[in-house]
Specification:
This protein has 771 residues and is of the alpha+beta class. Helices cover 35% and strands 27% of the residues. The chain has 23 helices and 35 strands. A six-stranded mixed beta sheet has the order 9-10-8-11-12-13, sandwiched between helices. Strands 15-16-21-19-18-22 form a six-stranded antiparallel beta barrel. Strand 15 and strand 16 form a beta hairpin. The longest helix has 34 residues, at 40-73. 30% of the residues are buried.
Length: 771
């Protein structure tokens, strides 16, 4: 019996897989997706349905032709004159001159340009006839004019109010606030975070009263510091007032203010290529797989064989363009993988057949599921010894990805980047899934895209890899992304060819921005430079206010952190890397190395080489300079050597994070642990002339040393701890007394030793902490 897949039959019929799936479901054939299998009976049922539909269509066409011919043969003697009259009247065949308003000339411009034309004067008459209730009638008589002119200019000046004292102003302000509270039902509406001064103005409570109340709560703050929702509610209880926390309005949305991304109409949307993200664990062959697809060799140039940037490439399969994003697999690049999943249409999950599902594999699955994109699994390295694709499928099924051949809906293909086995099937599946999704965008508008990667080039300036999502980006257009703006000075594609424009789903490298934008940010094409500068300035102000708010924010959560601030040690770090996305990934990974004793501060992080200003900043802040895929220039190297600034450069992320972790561990205070040496029993006590008590001891376990510490145990309860002041065996001083021997012992500043007490001897040792 012959079986066929839905997509194979759709290709033979010349229709899309999605249309064929809908057709099969309408005629009662149970199919789930384009990968479903059709039997001979299903195909025969479909063929019969299509033949019946064609017969019915031909019958309808013949009936329509017969009706049309019958209409042509009927004489047109009814209603002809009336239709002719209506057509003539609609064309203006009657006395159409009577419809022209009076006062308009019959010339080309209707008499409007002639001096004294009737139209202008006629328009003024209704205005003069309108009644004026409050204003006095002017220019009616000469007397009236004289009276108005005779008025002195001093009579027109307003009378200045008397100056009020501060107490009067304060009372009036409080009265206004109380009235305002009554109007809203005795409830103040406050949006957080809010400064103490603004809280005082909103509620009418004096600034000094608010500050004093915060001091009573243990919070030292000034009037310009922000307070969060919890503190606002506590203050409301203290001042016995009702407060309602409201969210800020949507007027701060820059995209809506400047109309940067208007909604497209359905008829304006056209098909676009899919954006495919290749994800997976480190060293599972993602980049090698892409090398085969795009016939290049990127892996050889990567440090340690690890992809540490996001690469964007465009390939064509049977005339069908596909955009690929290669994301790093190391755990430090979580943000970069997340960024790849958020701008993609299809996710290719690469899993090594000899390694199986790993932590970053699971993380990639979660990112793809959160982004709600379909997943195609490529089980790589099937040619290696020990490869077990079935084990990989079993592990993936435990993560919620059930293979199609096991009754699930996840496409899984066995591939080999070395032998190129399975690569055509992967591309074919990408094309089919893209057809099912019906990806569309409007190319005839200003472009909206995503910054995939950004870096600072020494010769070319800021460079940004942009993936266009909507519209068409053209050379010379103005762009804005965050606080960065400029115009497209030049564009190159993934093959480093100069292009004049880039449509939807096309990645390009753009030159001409004022600064390096943040990787992952949205970038907009705008009409002119003024708009671009205005958007960038608004973003800069918002970021500045946010930083100030976070810096001065007072909350119950950071109260204890401020108390401990004096006890913390600081490790300042300056991070420089080759591209902005790597800077972001390293910064996030470094901040995870925080400890309770060491406060790790990233005082500067940027893309580009290590220059002299970085070293000067390190000198001023006593910071460590860390470079990733960059080197210091000559001036920076000489200054660092002169000022003894530590500059460390790396090419592999593992080494960088391990060194910073060691540096933080070296600043931690060591743990003090007790090493138990032995126990002895007090058999007898002796009183010396100076009233000191000497304990006659018998060592029952281990040993007792002279420079050690002892705990005095009475009925297994510690009653004293202290150092040994004297240890003797007979009349001689002893360094230690071993098990089974007797001796004499004195405890420093303790004379309450009794017969039967147990003395436990121990030493305190420092153990280095590690993160």
């Amino acid at each position: 019996m012959t079986h066929k897949r839905v997509y194979t039959l759709a290709k033979e019929m010349g229709i899309s897989s999605k249309d064929l799936v809908e057709l099969l479901q309408n005629i009662g054939v149970e199919v789930k997706s384009h990968m479903s299998t059709l039997t001979e009976d299903d195909i025969k049922q479909l063929t019969d349905f299509i033949s019946r539909a064609k017969k019915q269509q031909m019958k309808k066409i013949q009936e329509q032709k017969a009706k049309t011919e019958a209409k042509r043969e009927t004489p047109r003697d009814k209603g002809g004159s009336s239709q002719g009259d209506r057509s003539r009247s609609s064309r203006g065949g009657g006395d159409h001159r009577s419809s022209r308003p009076q006062g308009q000339g019959g010339g080309r411009f209707g008499g409007n340009n002639r001096p004294g034309g009737g139209r202008n004067f006629a328009a003024k008459k209704p205005v003069a006839e309108q009644p004026q209730n409050n204003a006095p009638a002017k220019r009616k008589s000469a007397n009236g004019k004289k009276k108005e002119k005779s008025k002195s200019w001093r009579d027109e000046q307003p009378i200045k109010p008397q100056m009020k004292s501060r107490s009067q102003k304060r009372k009036e302000r409080q009265a206004r606030q109380e009235a305002k509270a009554k109007e809203v039902g005795g409830t103040f509406k406050i949006s957080t975070p809010i400064t103490i001064k603004e809280f005082s103005e909103e509620t009418g409570v004096g600034v000094s009263s608010v500050i004093m109340q915060l001091m009573n709560l243990g919070i030292m703050a000034t009037q310009n510091e922000s307070i969060d929702e919890d503190v606002v509610l506590i203050l409301a209880d203290e001042f016995d007032m009702q407060v309602e926390i409201v969210e800020e309005g949507a007027e701060d949305n820059i995209e809506e203010i400047f109309q940067l991304d208007p909604e497209d109409k359905e008829e304006e949307l056209l098909p676009r290529p899919p954006v495919v993200t290749v994800m997976g664990h480190v060293d599972h062959g993602k980049t090698s797989l892409l090398d085969v697809i795009k016939k290049s060799n990127v892996t050889a140039s990567e440090a340690g064989g690890i992809t540490q940037h996001i690469g964007a490439y465009t390939v064509s399969h049977n005339g069908f363009p596909i955009t690929f994003l290669d994301t790093p697999g190391h755990e430090a690049f979580t943000a970069m993988r997340s960024r790849g999943a958020s701008i993609t249409d299809i996710a290719i999950l690469v899993v090594a057949a000899d390694d199986g599902v790993m932590p970053q594999t699971v993380e990639a699955i979660h990112h793809a599921k959160v982004a709600e994109v379909p997943i195609i699994v490529a089980i790589n390295k099937i040619d290696k010894e020990g490869a077990n694709p079935d084990r990989v499928k079993q592990e993936l099924s435990e993560e919620g990805l059930m293979p199609e051949d096991w009754g699930g809906d996840t496409i899984m293909i066995n591939v080999s980047a070395k032998t190129e086995e399975g690569i055509p099937e992967v591309l074919e599946m990408i094309q089919l899934v893209a057809e099912m999704k019906e990806l569309k965008a409007n190319p005839n508008r200003l472009a909206v895209g995503t910054v995939v990667e950004a870096r600072l080039d020494k010769g070319k300036g800021p460079m940004a890899t942009i993936l266009v999502r909507k519209g068409t980006l053209r050379q010379g257009e103005f762009l804005v992304s965050g606080t960065s703006y400029g115009h497209v000075r030049a564009m190159t594609d993934d093959k480093k060819r100069t292009v004049k424009e880039a449509g939807p789903s096309q990645p390009v490298v753009v030159l001409g921005l004022s600064e390096v934008p943040n990787a992952g940010d949205t970038i907009y094409a705008v009409a002119d430079e003024k708009t671009a500068r205005s958007v960038a300035e608004k973003n800069f102000q918002d970021e500045r206010e946010q930083k100030l708010s976070n810096r001065n924010k007072v909350s119950m959560e950071n109260l204890f952190d401020k108390i401990k601030e004096g006890e913390l040690k600081d490790l300042n770090i300056i991070i420089k890397a080759d591209v902005k996305g790597t800077v972001e990934a390293i910064s996030q990974s470094v901040m995870k190395i925080q400890s309770d004793e060491v406060k790790l501060n990233i005082i500067h992080a940027a893309a580009g080489g290590i220059n002299e200003s970085d070293v000067q900043l390190a000198i001023a802040s006593n910071a460590l300079v860390v470079g990733f895929n960059v080197r210091p220039n000559n001036n920076a190297y000489d200054l660092a050597k002169l000022e003894d600034v530590d500059i460390r450069t790396y090419r592999i992320i593992y080494d960088l994070l391990n060194d910073i972790r060691d540096a933080v561990s070296g600043m931690l205070s060591p743990d003090i642990v007790e090493e138990i040496l032995g126990r002895c029993e007090v058999r007898q006590t002796f009183k010396l002339p100076n009233n000191n008590i000497v304990a006659g001891i018998y060592v029952i376990k281990g040993k007792v040393v002279r420079n050690g510490l002892v705990k005095v145990l009475r009925e297994d309860i510690v009653i004293h701890e202290g150092p040994i002041s004297s240890l003797k065996r007979f009349q001689d001083d002893a360094r230690e007394i071993a098990q089974g021997y007797e001796g004499g012992l004195m405890v420093d500043n303790f004379n309450d030793i009794q017969v039967g007490d147990i003395l436990e001897c121990y030493l305190e040792k420092e153990v280095k902490k590690e993160i």
